Amino acid sequence: MAEPIEELEARLAELRARLREANRARDTAAVSRVRAEMRIAEAAWEAALAAESAEAGTPTDGAEPAAGAAPRPTETVPPRPPEGVPVREQVHQALAILGAPAAPKLISAAYQAFFAEPLATTKLASLRRDEERSFTSQRYSRPYYICAALTHDRLAPARGLLAVSSWPLERRIIAPLSPRTDFLTHAIGAAEHMQRLTAAGHPPSGEAWRLLRRFAFNIPGAYEGGEPDPGQVISAARQEAAVHQGTDDSQRQSAAARARAQLNDIQELFGVSSLHILRDTGTS
After folding, report:
1. pTM across the whole model
2. Taking burial as the number of CB atoms within 10 A of a residue's CB, which of 39, 49, 88, 111 is the most buried?
């Protein structure tokens, strides 16, 4: 039986506390064990969230279409989230599907594609700063924060890219090959979510098909005309990702190890900036 999402959130909070203790004690073996447990719990949490979103979908009214005018599956309205979902939760839901750091425009497109509700990019302008202020005042009080992707060389915030704090640090690093590997991850995430929706009885919307088509156009072997096949997109994206994965992983892991050795908790999530330097040196 799947673990309730509330229990997963409590377990993640406990694991984060254990991770901080192990990090402060410089117990690398314990850090590795706890991070492995966190990855498992995070994956379970994201799966539970996706299932919860699908269950909250608006069912069809059962009306039959007129003869000769049957609606195409691409016109099906996707499941809607509950009314009044905060912007940070909307962003988290989109990023959970995409699976890698993304720009506000893509986050907005993904949210509209899978939740039938627009997410204005203007609402995201100050979100990361708000999240940083919240984390600074009450660290780890939330299950996750919308944070920054970090450049592999300077460990500074990657311009225009948002990520999720519960992701492993390696996933939030942007190395030279990362834009392409992350694009492939986005395509796989969108295609897999479309498969989950279909299996749950919620055929993807026209917006979702258009989003997948945009990905498929730019992946060799992923598109043959008409509506793209999610399975074919996943296969083609994984095949190309395998070409870049080794080098990209190595660069990300090297940068992440340096970040863990050099940065504090705030900087690991939001990057090194002149503001952080001023705070660390006590300059006003």
Report:
1. 0.71
2. 111
